[in-house]
Amino acid sequence: MENCIFCKIINNEIPSYKVYEDEEVYAFLDISQATPGHTLLIPKTHVTDIFSYDDVLAEKLFSRLPKIARALEAAFPEMEGLNIINNNKELAYQTVFHSHVHLIPRYTKEDDFSMHFGNHMGQQTENEMTEIAEKIAKQVK
C-alpha cells in the first residue's frame, strides 16, 4: 500500500530496529516503547486487520509469535510476563492500519503499562450467555 508506514518499513524506505525477518513476516521495535523490548510483528503482505486474514496468512504470522516471545524472554531474563495484543479497527485502538501484533514485555506492576477489563461477571444471564455463544458458533466457518 502506497502510504502505509509499515509497508515502507518492510521496503526499507523508513528505518526500523529489526528484531526478526523471514519471507513472510517482519518484527521490529515499536518506536514508542511501552516497556523495553516492545516489539511489533507484522505480515509482509499488507492487510488492514485480522478480518482481512486468510487461514494461510494467519498461520504464517501467528506461528512466529512464540519464536519472538522466547527471544524476548531470553534477551530480558528479568521479564516477569508478556502481553500479546492485536488491536483491530479504530474503536479497538488500532492506529496503524496494517495489521500488527504487539509483544510487550512486563517487568513490574509499576512499569507504566496496564490493561483493565473490569469485572463484568454476572451481567448476562445463563440464557443470554447461551444465546451469545450460539450466535457466534453459527458464524464460525
Structure characterization notes:
The structure is a single chain. The chain is α+β, with helices and mostly antiparallel strands and 141 residues long. The chain has one domain (5-137): HIT family, subunit A (2-Layer Sandwich). 26% of the residues lie in helices and 18% in strands. The chain contains four helices and five strands, in the order αβββααββα. It has helices at 5-10, 55-62, 65-75, 126-137, and strands at residues 18-21, 25-29, 39-43, 81-85, 101-106. The chain has a five-stranded antiparallel β-sheet with strand order 1-2-3-5-4, covered by helices on one side. Strand 1 and strand 2 form a beta hairpin. The longest helix has 12 residues, at 126-137.
Descriptors:
HIT family protein; 141 residues; alpha+beta; EC 2.1.1.-; HIT family, subunit A; single chain; 4 helices; Histidine_triad_HIT; methyltransferase activity; 5-stranded antiparallel sheet
